[in-house]
Amino acid sequence: MTTSKDILCYAVRHNGDWTAIARAIHSQEPAVPVFCQYPCVTFLDPEYPACFRKLRYPPWILFYQGDLRLLNGPAAAVVGSRDASRKALDNTARIVHCLKDRYVIVSGLARGVDARAHTEALDKSTIGILGCGIDRVYPRDNSLLFSRMRKDHLILSEYPPGTPPLPRHFPWRNRLIAAAADLLVVTEAREKSGTMYTVDEALALSVPVWCVPTEFGDESHMGCNRLILQGAGILCDLQQVREL
């Protein structure tokens, strides 16, 4: 019978690869005790966050720092471009300011919109979901933000400590951002971007998606307008945000 200690071993052995861990569990791969300096919770544990159990591929294990109970309350995911425009960063701050008294703010601790969303929520509650090991500060220019969130909020990852931020990790990570949220707000996005993976996961989970429309003529960030054409909600003003 597979135990939580076995899953920790498999996660470390297979660098957090979901499929490899599943194979190890199915085949009852021999496991050896593994020490981890960070708190972790597995799919077998009663304290495993309920929001992730609804995923088609729930993470086998979560490594975290901070207050895991933040995943139990109402949450709003706020995501968008890493190369965000000044307008998008300002809109992100204004939207989070309206949401943070009612929702825990969830994002991916990336540059741009993610970092601004977390920063604006530091006086309340925010959750950062990583695409690398929890001991890896990525990107480096978010190091102070990481430090604050590790101490007073929550950061988590399904990848074991030491795992580098490989490009393939981030689209896979985005399913967790969607699952942790009761609503998803996109403040700016390219038509082909990681944000679109988050939106796809949100739609699969019936999480409402709201978008800030892109200014006419801005061809570099047409993702929100495309989503609105496809049926996403459009955010026109802060009063509407207050009513979410």
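(the above was protein one; protein two follows)
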Amino acid sequence: MLTEITPESYDVDLHLAYATADNITGRPIYARSACYLHADAATLLGRAVGLARPLGLRLRILDAFRPAEAQWKLWEAQPNPTFVADPRRGSPHSMAAAVDLTLVDAVTGTPLDMGTGFDDLRPESEHGNQDISPDAQRHRALLLGVMTTAGWDWYVKEWWHYQLFKPRGTYPVLTDRAAGTHLMPEAA
């Protein structure tokens, strides 16, 4: 059902924030660092990789499929529907139809300056925000161009978030068990 996204299979960098404590909850959410997308999203990711490559860039994935259980953990830490989808409604991430990512230099692996970090909940994270450096604005525009040319939709409040068009009603919300991804820690 879901496609595993690996550096070898998609020529991407993986830095999955929710497999570390470096996220808005302050602790790891996932038991392991693995990346999955619905096959439709994986196809578009492949297109985006192909568009970034001739520019000397690679995509660094920060999050992709997020089991419904993980969405609840984020909601408990930050119940702000502007930045965290209410798990009762479902997140495109929990449908394996969204990806959070940035651009890195293909040679050095250095991330491009995007003006804010991932999961920064301030207005400076919005596309088009002009309170960030001109370089960061250009980098965001470059990421937006790569991703939209590849066929992705974008979310105005988060420069890092891209999703399939109209995922609600098209893709089901999946639990870790239903997806068979084994991302969530075993219950004690």
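Reviewer note on protein two: The beta strands are 2-4, 13-14, 36-38, 57-63, 98-105, 153-154, 161-163.
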